[in-house]
Amino acid sequence: MLERAFTGFTALPAPTARRSWRAVMEFPPNYDPTGDELRQRYRRLASGRHPDRAGGSDAAMSELNVALAEAERETG
After folding, report:
1. Burial class (CB in 10 A: 0-12, 13-18, 19+), 55
2. Is the dihedral of CA 33, 36, 39, 44 positive or negative?
3. Least crowded by CB within 10 Å, which of 10, 22, 27, 57?
4. Cα-based distances in Å from 70 to 21, 63, 66, 67
5. What is each CA distance from 51 to 56, 58, 66, 67, in whole angstroms?
């Protein structure tokens, strides 16, 4: 019984695991957005994640900036 109690912990991601840029920017996994879609989504998300806004933070904005850079690199 004790072994089964801890099997759910293997499904949790590692604390240092980074989310993909698609997850950060809220795109479906197999969707390839255009450059305009990326910039529009970035602006919308940045308005809520900016550290000067209520609910925003440096960490959330940094994650969004890294995601945008990765997305632009991958999509060209």
Report:
1. exposed
2. negative
3. 10
4. 7, 11, 6, 5
5. 5, 5, 16, 17
Backbone φ and ψ of 3, nearest 5°? -65, -40
Spatial separation of the C-alpha atoms in residues 10 and 75, rounded to whole Å: 32
Structural tokens at position 2: 């004790």
The alpha-helical segments, DSSP class H, found in 1-76 are 2-5, 21-24, 35-49, 58-75
What's the pTM value of the predicted model, to 2 decimals? 0.76
User: What is the per-residue pLDDT for 20?
Assistant: 93
Tell me the two tokens of residue 3: 């072994």
What percent of the chain stands above pLDDT 70? 80
